[in-house]
Design goal:
Length: 228
Amino acid sequence: MRTAAGERLLSPAWAEVDDYLAHTLLPEDETLETVLDENQAAGLPAIDVSPLQGGLLSLLVRLSGARTVLEIGTLGGYSTIHLARALPAGGRVVSLEFDPRHAEVARRNVERAGFADVVDIRVGAALDTLPVLQAEGAGPFDLVFIDADKPNNPHYLEWALRLTRSGSLIVGDNVVRAGRVAQDGSDPAIAGTRAFLTALGEDPRLEVTALQTVGSKGWDGFALALVR
């Protein structure tokens, strides 16, 4: 189904299949359902990763053996909790959130989920917070999840490379944009996404791929990069 210009494409069948897969493959999860309810009650935008995407993030943490995770874009903490749950004992997530109201909701959700001692939520523009992390000697992070304002994605990638090591994973969300990423345009989010993908493809330090996805979140996709 094609929606108005600027909106995502969404087929009812995609959401139906997403629901089927989630109910078939994922256990009932009252904690994460409560997070989504709390986010909605607080008026946060409904742009959290889907349950299946959250499951993928958890698997990537486990498969990579990550102990330290950097998340750029907390929102209400739904993806943050997926990441924190997959960490081994002693693991840590540092999550950066621009909006103080979103960060407060996320802190409550993270505490309710039992990860207040695992997750460190930093408030402020990520491009201001990332140099602070570097100055503190944070990292190297084993996995970086980039899911924030798209115009700054190329800058987030630069910082991700400074704060990772050989063998680290970098995951960039929302890189398809309902297919508009393949089109030149003046939309800052598209331009930022295209510049991000170009930088990924041209950087010899990275081994990269990207996948399109369809589902309850529409037509989108993610990029996955391994630091050589």
